[in-house]
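Dear H.,

Thanks for agreeing to be a second pair of eyes. The structure we're designing against is below in token form, covering all 173 positions.
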């Protein structure tokens, strides 16, 4: 990446883009927390009525969907954490970003500081890592967080509809 003339507008654009990504991430987390709370409360309340024979099937159906909703909402807020087969990064990796803690956590401080110093003394490299950080953050938001929160909402609403239909079929048809 070559920037012909580093200027304040570029800095502002990159900073604003990064701030937008952080806001989108916070919105996804907030939605996931709402779903977690609502699904947990509904699950707790519904389990107290599951022994009532007129509600058993509808509540069991709802509870299955609530558990799936809770699972996907948790995946939204937990983040991508690899415990097994985790790749250790090096400053020489092409996908290494010195701005992302998941990449530099394995790099010794001296190596990290030396690499960061080189980057800060080269405006093209500085812009390149900022663009790379924005790219990977946006990709993560789209492919992980918003995908899981979308699935969680779909299961939540599907569970409400299915359990309501089961109840009406059992009692009115």
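And this is the sequence the design step returned. I haven't edited it by hand at all.
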């Amino acid at each position: 990446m070559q920037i012909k003339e580093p200027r304040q507008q570029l800095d502002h654009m990159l900073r604003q883009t990064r701030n937008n990504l952080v806001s989108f991430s916070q919105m996804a987390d907030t939605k996931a927390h709402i779903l977690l709370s609502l699904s947990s409360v509904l699950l707790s309340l519904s389990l107290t009525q599951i022994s009532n024979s007129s509600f058993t099937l509808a509540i069991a159906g709802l509870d299955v969907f609530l558990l799936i909703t809770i699972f996907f909402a948790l995946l939204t807020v937990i983040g991508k954490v690899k415990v097994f087969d985790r790749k250790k990064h090096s400053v020489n990796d092409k996908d290494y970003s010195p701005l992302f803690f998941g990449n530099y956590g394995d790099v010794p401080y001296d190596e990290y500081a030396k690499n960061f110093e080189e980057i800060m003394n080269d405006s093209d490299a500085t812009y390149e890592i900022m663009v790379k950080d924005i790219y990977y953050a946006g990709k993560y938001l789209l492919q992980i967080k918003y995908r899981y929160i979308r699935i969680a909402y779909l299961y939540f609403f599907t569970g409400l509809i299915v359990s309501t239909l089961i109840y009406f079929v059992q009692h009115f048809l």
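Two observations from my side: Helices lie at 8-49, 56-78, 101-104, 109-120, 123-172. The mean pLDDT is 90.

Warmly,
E.
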